[in-house]
Every structure is written in C-alpha cells, then in structure tokens.
Amino acid sequence: MSAPQFDPAAYLAQLEEKKNRLIALLAPFAAPEPEVFDSPREHYRLRAEFRLWRENEERFYAMFAAGDKHTPILLDDFPIASTRINDLMPRLKAAWQLSSALSFKLFQAEFLTTLAGDGLITLCYHRPLDEHWQAAAQQLATELGVSLVGRSRGQRLVIGRDYVVEELDVAGRTFSYRQPEGAFTQPNGAVNEKMLNWAFDALGERQDDLLELYCGNGNFTLPLATRVRKVLATEISKSSVNAALANLADNNVDNVTLVRLSAEELTEALNEVRPFRRLQGIDLKSYQFGSVFVDPPRAGMDPDTCELTRRFERILYISCNPETLAANIAQLHDSHRVTRCALFDQFPYTHHMESGVLLERR
Description:
Shape: globular
Strand order of the largest sheet: 1-16-17-15-14-11-12-13
CATH topology of the largest domain: Rossmann fold
Order of helices and strands: HEEEEHHEEHEEEEHEHEHEHEHEHEE
Distance between the termini: 42 Å
CATH architecture of the largest domain: 3-Layer(aba) Sandwich
Number of domains: 2
Radius of gyration: 22 Å
CATH class of the largest domain: Alpha Beta
Number of helices: 10
Helix content: 25-40%
Number of strands: 17
C-alpha cells in the first residue's frame, strides 16, 4: 500500500469531487443524488502494513509512493491509521530494537485492529522461526496486549488468536465479527458501520428470501438476515467462509445457509447447468428470492452473474469500483431502475470510493 496524501484541510473538497464523479457516472441511469457518508478525517484505517527499511543498523517503518519501490518514506507514526495502531507502532519498534530474536531478518510488519479495541500484529521474516523467536514473541504479545502471528516461508506461528473481534452497531443491535489475519476486512470501521446501516434500511423489512453473493466474513449477512425470512449466501474463500460460519453462530443468526461457491458457480447451479456436491441437501427451489445482495470485487459482476441478478425484484449492490458498477447497471437498466444511491468514503485522500445502489424492477 502506498502512502495517501494526508491533508485534512482538503478533505471536504475531495469528498465533493468524489460525489460529482459518482453523479456523472450514474447520470445515464437517472439515478437520484447520492446520500454521502463521510469518514473521520484521521485515525480511520483499522489495518496497515509497513515494509521495514534498514539504515545505520536501525529498522524503520517505511512506505513508498506509487511506482517507486526504491525511495522509502520513513514513518514514526501514521495519522490515517487507528489510534491503536499509532500506540503500537513505537512500542513494537522499541521491542525489535532490543531483541535480535525479533529483529533478525524481519522485513514487514502488519497491524489489524478494530473499533472495539482488539489488535493483532503479523511479523514477516526471511528466515525460519525457532523457539527463541516464540519465547520473545510470547513476551511481546503479553506486553502489548495483542495477538501475534509470525510468518516465514512455510511457517505461520500464532501467539494468542489468529483473528480480531469487531463490534458494529446496526439499527440498535450490536453484531460481533471475527476478522481473520490475512483475510479481507473493511479497512474503515466507522464508514463500514454507516454502510451496514444504509444497506439495512435500503433492503427494508421483507417476507421473502435473500440471495447474497460474495458474502466474505458475513459483514453484511448478519444484519441483512434479520430483515428477511432466510438467506442463501455464497463465498469462495475458505478462511472467509469459516469466519462467516463462526460469526453466524456467535450472533445466534440461524436463518442463513452458507455455501462455498463462487458467484459464477452459483449462477450455473441456479441455471441448472450442472450440479455441485457442496449444494447437496440444499433445496434451491424452496427459496422464494425477492432480493439479491452483491458486494463484488473491483472487477464487478461478470456478465452471466449480472444477468442472474435481473431475475430479482430488488438488487442491492455495494461497489468498490464505480466504473464497473456503472457497467453492470448499464446491463440491467432496461429491467431495473436506480431508486437509491450512496457514496461511502472508505478511502479518504485517495481517488478510491465505495458506493451503493438499490435497483428495483421497472
């Protein structure tokens, strides 16, 4: 990750530019003006990773400008990162400076934190990790009050847990989420909470069923499941599936069936192109789907999956790439119209933005 251009004084102007860009992209579809959900100006990012740069026998946290891997930007703190990360950075640096077991061939440090205050640090090495590292890491984890993961080629040693626990409030209910080390999580917790509440409101109270594609660790699944009769959710990542299953159990959400299939595979199953063993025991025809929720990767939905969503009365779509969102809407525009639109500023001081639309059948 490259260092963003951190300038709180310019934040509102940048947010207005994003809003105008989204309006322009969705103008061909007569979309309403987007609801805009801003970000905290600093300490909003819950995860960060740093390369370690060595100068004069000392290691520093380093980041690099886009396209330049040779000129480090040395850091003592990182104002866009959570206060928890900023508290941990100097304490971790002091620890590795005092311990060769921790510092020898250490090349990267990754932080994962939560709004709820949990923390996990991953340390990456160009060497095998032995009992001396484990003893030092155990002491460090205790001193910092975090879990710690050591990684080297063919090794992954866990001190404590390999996940953090987040708590997010949606419509008056607090949901608990396990967020695994190395798996995708929303980086901006405050904005993620706003996204969840917007999606919860946009879906509304329903008496039918929901299909969810790309469900990840169940970030949206948990609150949306309380709005419908039952949910069929899909995800291809094994670590995300395991986290989602744990999150469903931890929150006593019992109306969700989760299958490890890609969106493309589920499309084939619903179109009866071919059967899948992972769907054994699941009667797809028993579902009365009224809505589909999608949160695809940056490439958006492939044409077949996009065509699948056309079957539903309501398409609730969260996107991390407004260009592919617009391309998908273009495919659906003849049958569905955009009735709600939102901009979620997950990534301040960058050109990236998260957006959401509700499409309803004409």
